């Protein structure tokens, strides 16, 4: 029975995701260090434009995210042709949206600078980076669609390897083109845009090759023109709440960072350093939550609702244990680790107190991410969107302003609101998952006459 390894096992899915995200974080840090050698202005431009790019990526992530969930569901219900068609439409539509974004960024960089109040001294660098790196946003869209489709077939290793290769190429080319090494021109920030576009293009080509053979039937050139309105409607139905949810988080973070900037440079620096330390806790939770989404979607599609229900709790227990252990390690070594970034006693003291609060933040974050993704996996995306928008707006954003700014609690008050936001959302999604609304609906469908069950694809 177990001679063939299950590609949808939690650990099988999770560890490549974790390794990929970990190395991306480490290489991203190296990338930032190299850009800082150009100038502080270059770092400021890259940081500010990253917020703009993050907001725009929600447009195509709406499609690729919805397509990914449906691919796992359809494969679970043995509807491979539908999964294949959904993957193709997710790729072409995401690519089309990415191309439109690229054209806007390439042609409207100066106008966007005016909207975002980019200072005059940053404008020349802004135009270079947003026009050329942002102009390659279509490549980011294609990478998202291709890697999401491949992961949801149960193959999380290949996107990991390709992601690692892309980042290594990017760092190597950065070094050569920023500083003019190995006989290449010294292009500074323009060199970063060239290395970014070349490395992304290589990743797209490799991922597309894997994508061609990812399903039972090879994907040909003519298949790229395939469009099935009924299946695309399913993608949008699941995907648009994911996009709205993601947008809510992005704008909430932008607002909170504005509040932190009002507190002063020390608080802003402390939060920046805390983000770096906390990212190692977050990566564990993120890998588990993305793996459980793929696993639950596949089980749900196969009609194995009991296994899906229990599997989400098993993943939650593992994620809670790992995140809590990591938070304890950070607390024990926190002051030393913060000292690697800064010798400012104010920052060290404030950061150490926040690491204690991190013990409450990380379990809430894992609870929220794991069960939020489990609900998304069964199609309950509107509920998770509604809860997220409410909590992000009222608890996280408004609460941060009231406690952090008006009440004078500072960064500690903002952290308390971040903790409350994660736990509020976590408790609501826990109650929803315990209610089993979509799971019971699927069980009811499986008990209908055979003809109706076969139409829904939920037969046990």
UniProtKB/TrEMBL annotation:
The chain crosses the membrane at residues 12-30, 50-72, 84-106, 126-146, 158-178, 198-215, 235-263, 283-303, 315-338, 350-371, 383-403. It is found in: Cell membrane. CDD domains: MATE_like_8. The keyword Membrane applies. Signal peptide: none annotated. Keywords: Cell membrane, Membrane, Transmembrane, Transmembrane helix, Transport. It is a multi-pass membrane protein. InterPro entries: MATE_fam, MdtK-like, YsiQ. Its main location: membrane. PANTHER family: MULTIDRUG AND TOXIN EFFLUX PROTEIN MATE FAMILY, NA+ DRIVEN MULTIDRUG EFFLUX PUMP. This is MATE family efflux transporter. It comes from Cohnella cellulosilytica.
């Amino acid at each position: 029975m177990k001679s063939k390894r299950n590609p949808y096992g939690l650990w099988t899915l999770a560890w490549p995701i974790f390794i990929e995200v970990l190395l991306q974080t480490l290489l991203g840090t190296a990338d930032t260090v190299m850009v800082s050698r150009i100038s502080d202005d270059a770092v400021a431009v890259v940081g500010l434009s990253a917020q703009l790019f993050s907001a725009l990526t929600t447009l195509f992530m709406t499609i690729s995210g919805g397509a990914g969930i449906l691919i796992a569901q359809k494969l679970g219900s043995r509807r491979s042709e539908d999964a294949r068609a959904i993957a193709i439409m997710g790729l072409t539509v995401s690519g089309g949206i990415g191309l439109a974004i690229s054209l806007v960024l390439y042609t409207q960089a100066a106008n966007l600078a005016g909207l975002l109040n980019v200072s005059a001294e940053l404008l020349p660098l802004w135009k270079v980076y947003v026009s050329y790196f942002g102009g390659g946003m279509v490549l980011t869209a294609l990478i998202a669609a291709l890697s999401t489709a491949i992961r949801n077939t149960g193959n999380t290793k290949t996107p990991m390897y390709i992601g690692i290769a892309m980042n290594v190429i990017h760092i190597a080319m950065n070094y050569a083109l920023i500083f003019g090494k190995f006989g290449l021109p010294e292009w500074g920030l323009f060199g970063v845009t060239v290395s970014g576009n070349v490395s992304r293009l290589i990743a797209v080509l490799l991922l597309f090759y894997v994508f061609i053979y990812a399903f039972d039937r090879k994907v040909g050139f003519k298949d790229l023109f395939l469009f099935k309105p009924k299946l695309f409607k399913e993608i949008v139905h699941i995907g648009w709440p994911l996009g709205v949810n993601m947008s809510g988080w992005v704008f909430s973070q932008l607002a909170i960072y504005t509040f932190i900037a009002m507190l002063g440079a020390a608080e802003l620096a402390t939060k920046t350093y805390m983000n770096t330390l906390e990212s190692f806790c977050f990566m564990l939770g993120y890998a588990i939550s993305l793996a459980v989404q793929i696993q639950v979607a596949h089980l749900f599609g196969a009609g194995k609702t009991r296994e899906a229900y229990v599997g989400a709790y098993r993943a939650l227990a593992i994620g809670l244990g790992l995140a809590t252990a990591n938070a304890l390690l950070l607390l024990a070594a926190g002051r030393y680790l913060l000292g690697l970034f800064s010798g400012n006693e104010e920052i060290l003291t404030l950061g150490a107190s926040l690491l204690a609060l991190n013990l409450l933040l990380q379990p809430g974050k894992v609870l929220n991410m794991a069960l939020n993704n489990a609900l998304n996996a069964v199609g309950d995306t509107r509920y998770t969107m509604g809860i997220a928008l409410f909590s992000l707006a009222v608890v996280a954003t408004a609460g941060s302003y009231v406690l952090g700014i008006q009440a004078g609690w500072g960064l500690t008050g903002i952290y308390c609101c971040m903790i409350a936001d994660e736990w509020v959302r976590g408790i609501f999604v826990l109650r929803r998952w315990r209610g089993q609304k979509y799971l019971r609906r699927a069980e009811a469908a499986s008990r209908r006459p055979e003809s109706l069950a076969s139409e829904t694809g939920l037969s046990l």
